[in-house]
Design brief:
single chain, mainly alpha, 75% helix
Length: 165
């Protein structure tokens, strides 16, 4: 796992082979295949670990109590998300760039994003109800747009694209 993380800091995922991982980790091919079916499975495990931290990053927004706290809570969650992406940039770049290359990665990333979307929709509904604006916004659609937009913006920052860098 650590060796793959180091390799991702140096090269794109599609440029890394299982042989590269074996050399970097100093392990035998049989040992690798005892634990993993492919390099995609290694990436899936790295992503799962990184995303666990992503849920922590959203807590200030998810748990704020009233509308006066909302702007600060949103800013804090965005900053926490940016720190997560900075800390986990090689792994998160790899999943964003490769989630459609393998069925397991596709399933994993869509499930992760669906989880963030559902949590965001629930928060939107809570905030929506608090402002007595029910029915004006489809929370699920808005949440999906915000979740995927956030993913893209954090990704652009992680690959140093101005002005997101």
């Amino acid at each position: 796992m650590a060796a793959t993380g180091r390799l991702l800091a140096e090269r794109r995922f599609d440029e890394i082979t299982v042989a590269d991982i074996l050399t970097a980790a100093n392990v035998a091919r049989g040992s690798f295949y005892f634990y993993f079916d492919s390099k995609h499975e290694v990436l899936a495990e790295l992503v799962t670990r990184a995303i666990g931290r992503g849920h922590d990053a959203s807590q200030s927004w998810l748990q704020h109590r009233d509308s006066d706290e909302r702007p600060a809570a949103v800013r804090q969650s965005i900053a926490d998300g940016a720190r997560l992406w900075a800390d986990q940039a090689p792994v998160l770049r790899a999943i964003v760039e490769n989630w459609r290359s393998d069925p397991r990665l596709t399933e994993l990333w869509q499930a992760q994003m669906a989880g963030f979307t559902a949590t965001t929709a629930a928060r939107i509904e809570t905030d929506h109800t608090a402002h007595d604006a029910a029915g004006q916004v489809d929370a699920e659609t808005l949440a999906a747009a915000l979740t995927w937009l956030g993913e893209r913006l954090y990704y652009l920052a992680a690959i140093d694209i101005p002005p997101f860098d």
